Amino acid sequence: MNNNGIQRGAAAGSKSKKIVGLIIRYLVLLLVLVILVTPLVWQLSTSLKGKGVGLYTRPPQFWPEDASLAAYGEVTRIVPILKYTINSVIVAIICLIGNVFGATAAGYALAKFQFKGRKFAMGVFIVGIVMPTETILIARYMLMQSLSLNNTLLGIALPSLVGAMNVLLMRNAISGIPSSLEEAAMIDGANAWQRFIRIIIPSVKGTMAVVAIFSFVAAWDDFLWPLLVMSDQNKYTLTIGLNYLQGTFANDPRVVAAGTIIAIMPILILFFALQKYFFQGVGEGGIKG
Q1: Is residue 287 assigned to a domain?
Q2: Inter-residue contact 271 to 188 (CB < 8 Å)
């Protein structure tokens, strides 16, 4: 009886610890969620407040009673928002395609091929991650100038066409694919490109979605490099265009908030479209089992 009681007590104590740990975990997640979402909700609320509605009331009013889209209309009146959005989409899509396919191909080569200089190539990619972008801005600018790509959308996208971090992400995912799959394909006569298309790509779709989102967001949010390369206002990306007219926006926080919401909408749309593959790819290490 005593032994059974001790075992039941130990089991109850272990269960209580698990419940407490679970509660703490969810409280921390809830806190992180509030910290991340509150600024976005506040910007959305501010953008929907009309001229006669106070912005900084007590207690804060997160959803205005009389929501208005006037601030969004003001943004489109002041800024050629459609033109800037199209420019940003073009740059982001070029970077997305280049990173998804280029990083996957490079990751495949680093993960599955044995060649002279492989470790050196890995080191170059690692250095590319830790090196601050600002240290190579001048070299980038001179290179684009020598290629006559300054003041072009391609000149913005080209330096970010294949990211070092994305290559290493793909390399780690592809390394987890069993070599036996490739060996079987080689016995059947498949060459490297056939193995890449028929085995590698289907096995790492999740990680490719992660790379797609990361590269799109990085290209969409980039400000410093497009600012250096571009001088023609008609070719500005959205981030530059909105910031360039910040003096006009400064007098009305509602318009600033509306511009912010417009700028982040494509990112949210892409994430929700790829979220299934994104969460699959975050923990993807190749084929399990």
Answers
A1: no
A2: no
> Which of 36, 7, 50, 35 is CA-nearest to residue 255?
50
Q: How far apart are CA 3 and CA 278, in angstroms?
A: 49
Q: Is residue 288 part of a domain?
A: no
Composition of the chain by helix, strand, coil, percent to 5: 75, 0, 25
> CB count, 10 Å around CB of 235?
21
pLDDT for 195-228, tens place per residue? 888 888 888 888 888 898 889 999 998 888 998 8
Structure tokens at 139: 């070299």
SS3 per residue for 208-273: HHHHHHHHHHHHHHCCHHHHHHCCCHHHCCHHHHHHHCHHHHCCCHHHHHHHHHHHHHHHHHHHHH
The domain in which residue 35 lies consists of 1-68
255, two tokens: 């318009």
Helix or strand run (H / E) with residue 76 = helix 70-78
| Count of Cβ atoms closer than 10 Å to residue 173 Cβ | 26
Reference 74, options 259, 263, 265; nearest CA is 259
- pLDDT reported for residue 286: 39
- Secondary structure letter of residue 79 according to DSSP: S
Same domain for 261 and 167: yes
